[in-house]
Amino acid sequence: MRRAFKFLLRPTARQAAALSVMLGDHRALYNAALQERRDAWRHPSKTMIRYGDQSAQLKEIRACDPDQGRWSFSSQQATLRRLDKATVKTISLRREGRRWYVLLSCDDVPAEPFPAT
What sign does the CA torsion over 63, 70, 85, 1 have? Predict the structure, then answer.
């Protein structure tokens, strides 16, 4: 069974600034990828670029420029005491106004999980 949990983060001012920079980097990356798709489709050949193609490009970019992977991390790096026996599949960060949240999607959640705070 897959469940999602939402937790309020309370970052320090320095951490919030770093999170804002990360959000800006991800926004720029998304917009650049979207523009690449639009440009390819507007080309007379009507080339379609798929997500998998762009994802492969990211792997190549990170291999050549390690700084490009500075915001990458895996769910295995998360330490979650309140979700014993759950397997974290995805981790997302979200900003709503001035508040930051972490969203976790988990498999193998116990029958009665702890409530999200």
Answer: negative
